Amino acid sequence: MIANPTRNFLFAAAAAAAAAALALGAAVAAKPVGLSFAPIPKVALPKISAETLRGVTEELSSDRYEGRGPATRAEDLTITYIIKRFQAAGLKPGNKGSWLQEVPTVEIESQNASGLHVDVGGKALHFDFGKDMVAGSYRAVPRTEIKEAPMVFVGYGVNAPELGWNDYAGIDMKGKIAVVLVNDPDYEQADEKGIFKGRRMTYYGRWTYKYEEAARQGAAGVLLIHDTFPAAYGWQVVNSSWTGPQMYIQSADNGMSQTQANGWIQKPVAEAILAASGQDLAALSARAKQKGFKAVALDAKASLAFDNKITKGVSRNVIGIQPGKTRPRDYVLYTAHWDHLGRCTPDASGDDICNGSIDNATGIAAMVAIAEASKRAGPAARSQVFLAVTLEESGLLGSKYYAEHPVYPLSRTVGGVNMDGVGPGSPSRDVSVTGGDKNQLTRYLNAAMKQMSFYQTPEDHPERGGYYRSDHFSFAKLGVPMFAVGRGSDWINGGKPAGSAASDDYLQHRYHQPSDAFDPAWDWSGAQQEVQLYYLLGRMLAMGSDWPNWHKGDEFRAIRDQSRASGK
Is residue 440 a contact partner of residue 515, using CB atoms and an 8 Å limit? Predict the structure, then answer.
């Protein structure tokens, strides 16, 4: 899980008072006007093998797998074991007779960085790489150099036609550097009302979107203004994340369709540049929150340069399928990432293997257990695809590659369930949902919660954009509705104090550390319950005939409409 300890067992507990008050309203979404839906199929609650969950998790998180680092010796061990378990669970090879899909990668490491030089208002300003700014390139070229590029403040850098919002309206960005605010215009609101869903971050608030949109606008580069609250993390996170090697998917054009450089600047750096240009960051930021904001050309030109060390490689996704009985060309996905961090910073004992037991050996174990239950139940009407993806920890790259190079057309992919961290411990009374009520999968979740006697807990810290930090997002971005749900923290054994304590312990002492290791004493009853929920949600989709869509106004609605039109 990439910097996203905010779901399932990894969730910090939501406030008890808020949970009870919001549960009913959040769980029961109104039926969109003018739409009719087929009844949700009734699906029997399956038996989920605790032995499978325990056995697969223990095997994949043993030291022999060295933390399951992609493109290491451990990758061959990992995918061989997953294939063995998929075969035993009755799945068929899912990629034209093969179990594997190759994922070509390119690692780019910036070296010999010049820092940022800005000529502004007759002054020459310099800002140091790492301390004041960071930057890298998506382009696989030996050297990146931008000289005296005009700088333009483009507010939040959003172009959202469905919302009538375009921060780039009326300006040609060719050869220019976009200076962009982090998050989206509504982030300071206390509730979720507003064009951009209020406090809840939309994809337009994610830094990845801002780089993508600037490239579409033809910009030479992007500099995001870091501010801790709207970013949801401090500068040290940005610095550590952007000063080492960056992993990407190889592209046919070597990334040349992207900007030359993407980076971040500290807020005081932005304030200094704007002040020297006769502008005030606070005033411009306030204006940028209003519809109809116009980009502001600054009296500033920026220069930066760095070398790029380029390393190309290949990793692999594992794909199994249970063909559908009556509608085999409709597909339902189960996804989980098999990779973790490999060898990492040693702990006090000298242990340098980040085993990734919960994150995410448990997700692969859940996938195997669901395949076993599906074998016992027999084929569903639609085909069920079991996709164990690589390189999640490097930026969702395995799922991104599949979504952009699907074995089964996304236009014929009904939806799916992503599993990222299935924690041991007690069963729960509640379900947590990441991302809120974004699409018509809500009615399936409501039915499953009713069948399993769950209530829904509101997402903790929706402003942090947790929905965009796990593999379901790679599919959502291209229109496929995906469940991002999990067992909540109101445990049957011990209530919220017990669930919160387990979550806090994991976040503080185990997440992305060698201590995320298998424990023979773990209680698997809660994980069994959670995997039952995943089975139920996927099987309902696989037995049904609906094609769930995103709610009107959601950022992914338009691409789903286009995809489905082509699929018909």
Answer: no
The C-alpha atoms of residue 410 and residue 414 are separated, in whole angstroms, by 8
Mean pLDDT by runs of 10 across the 568 residues of the chain is 44 34 34 63 97 98 96 95 98 98 95 97 95 96 98 98 95 98 93 89 93 98 96 89 89 96 98 97 97 96 98 97 98 97 90 94 98 98 98 94 97 97 95 92 97 91 85 96 94 94 88 92 98 98 96 93 87
Interior/surface letters 474-506, b for 16+ CB within 10 angstroms, e for the rest? bbbbbbbbbbbbbbbbbbeeebbebbbebbeeb
User: DSSP letters along 183-213, please?
Assistant: S-TTTT-SSS-STT-TTS--GGGSHHHHHHH
Question: Would the pTM of this model clear 0.85, i.e. be above it?
Answer: yes
Cα R_g (the chain), whole angstroms: 23
Residues 248 and 321 in one domain: no
Do residues 180 and 291 both lie within one domain? yes
CATH code for the domain in which residue 241 is found: 3.50.30.30
Is residue 20 assigned to a domain? no
**How many domains does one find in the chain?**
2
Longest distance between any two alpha carbons in the chain, whole Å: 75
Residue 3's contacts (CB-CB under 8 Å, 6 or more residues apart) are 233, 237, 241, 469
* Residues sharing a CB contact under 8 Å with residue 348, sequence separation 6 or more, in sequence order: none
pLDDT at residue 568, rounded to an integer: 66
Tens of pLDDT, residue by residue over 104-141, are: 999 999 999 999 999 998 899 999 999 999 999 999 99
CB-CB contact of 199 with 461 (8 Å): no
The answer to whether 142 and 309 have CB atoms below 8 angstroms apart is: no
Closest to 517 measured CA to CA, from 68, 3, 6: 68
Q: Are residues 130 and 90 in the same domain?
A: no
Residues spanned by the domain of 402: 8-13+35-102+312-567
In this structure, what CATH number is given to the domain that contains residue 520?
3.40.630.10
Q: Judge if 394 and 382 occupy the same domain.
A: yes
Residue ranges with strand state E in 68-191:
92-93, 100-111, 116-120, 123-127, 133-136, 143-153, 159-160, 165-166, 177-181
